[in-house]
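Example with several molecule types.
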Amino acid sequence: MAKEIKLMKGNEAIAEGAIRCGCDGYFGYPITPQSEILEYLTAENPYPKTGMVVLQAESETASINMVYGGAALGKRVMTTSSSPGISLMQEGLSYIAGAELPALVVNVVRGGPGLGTIQPSQADYFQTVKGGGHGDYRLITLAPASVQEMYDFVELGFDLAFKYRNPVMLLSDGVIGQVMEKVEVGEYKPRWTNEYIAKTYPWALVGKPESRGHNIITSLQLDPVVQEKVNHKLQAKYKVCEENEVRYETFQTEDAEILLVAYGSSARICQKVVQLGREAGIKVGLLRPITLWPFPKKPLLELSKQVKSILTVEMSAGQMIEDVKLAVECKVPVQHYGRFGGMIPTPTEIFEVLKTL
Amino acid sequence: MTREEIIKPENLVYSKTKVLTDTVMHYCPGCGHGTTHRLVAEVIDEMGIQSETLGVAPVGCAVLAYNYFDVDIAEAAHGRAPALATAMKRLRPEKFVFTYQGDGDLAAIGTGETIHACNRGENITIIFVNNGIYGMTGGQMAPTTLEGMVTATSPYGREQQFNGHPLKITELVAQLPGTYYVTRQAVYTPALVRRAKKAIRQAFEYQKLNKGVTFVEIVSNCNSGWKMSPVKANEWLEENMLPFYPLGDLKVPEKE
Ligand SMILES: Cc1ncc(C[n+]2csc(CCOP(=O)(O)OP(=O)(O)O)c2C)c(N)n1
Ligand code: SF4
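Resulting structure tokens for the full complex:
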């Protein structure tokens, strides 16, 4: 069959990806720069066609708890928001992680703190990968760098969420959300049937049959001995995830002496910087983490044996740089260049910094 | 009669409904939560909908309700049960979905979720246990605490000028077109228990019609939080709670 290509905004690709991959439910509240997702979904009105529920909630608090309720049924449910809304969701995310439920959350990040700006930013890195909510939990975090990845990572996110029974965060930003690019879209996949869910996910709430005891979805363990065991189990799961799910991409690193590390739209900008550097005779390469948690520690450690210095480029005051430093174990100097508060760095200004390394 | 004779099925006059598990309840003796649990479970049993029911437990004294109701059930974050239930019912509209919530859960931290689930007319049943206090955390003031009532955080009595008025959330949700059946009951006498059970049954039956939220408030006691014996607490409930929270239907479906 001929490939189906569409020209779409990153936000629209999220919505289209959800409908086509067989998502069961979307619950969200409007916020710039990602309101197109809810608008697109309500305009497409998938319910009569696929049975996908799309509901505008009264707040992000409600959205994430609707996601919690849907996920408890073994349904593929999601929400999307931008920074202030994601802050409101942190309690719910912690519950979902604690109750070991699969769910997909998209953050199209804008500049903060506070109401901040509606312009793009990457300043929610700490909140996402260090656990913005309470307790020892992790969010599997995917960082798309193109509209195509916005589309692809919806299905990938659901797959990982169900594989690990863990919430997955798609950490995007206002650039990727708003930019228009070509997207190769996939076929429409049917939603899972209730019978399939009952058979495949024995933990799901489907209505207690005579044949088994009742299923309980909870994150509460009053007995600290048991709660510690629960935490050990979570940590063991995270370890497996760290071993198997690291994703990253390298660009001209084979002979690199200087390494740029950047994700999302910063990585797109840094590709241009590599080109400028190479034209000027500087041996520069780029590593782009695709999963921010689990973080590509091993490839970074390997490259640290080869390069003389590392520059992280982020649209923040320097957050991912902490993980890069931990990964390279002080083997090479690591510096940060960032613009923030909604400002986007240009390739030339990064190139100027590169020349000083 | 010997014990053996008493437990013969033909001599049985009373037994635990099968929709309650064998887990020993943690509720204080005399607390209305236990009775209310039993009524909800009996209704589910009598309607034969155990396998068709999905429950949502609150944060509050009833947080462990998931250990007692023998149905598939989730434990929500504090106040968010109606949000969970909204998604559950929308994704499995053929199921019976109910939340079980206290007054702090439903009328303080979860007010937004309560109002909007009711206003959207979600086809769920809300069982609301109003004991005028935060039982679980040790008897602090709730939005439903009566004027002058002494609690751990209103040690000189709730003062209207400072703390505002007790919130009649049930009257409030009855105003919303999204609610179909709204009633206020109590469970501290056998006659009231029977009436409350009828109301809960009605609420679950109406869920089949898909006409909106069915909402049953149970005016209850918290003898521990109120620092009273169970008997005294029930007297106090009748004398003080009921004049402010009068029993009866607030909204019944119009005859069609
Ligand atoms: C976000 C959050 N805030 C506060 C608490 C603490 N907390 C637990 S139960 C409760 C009050 C419960 O009171 P109510 O809903 O009236 O139920 P009752 O215990 O009286 O049955 C509070 C404040 C919590 N668990 N989560
Ligand atoms: S503290 Fe109050 S509400 Fe909680 S179980 Fe005891 S009497 Fe019931």
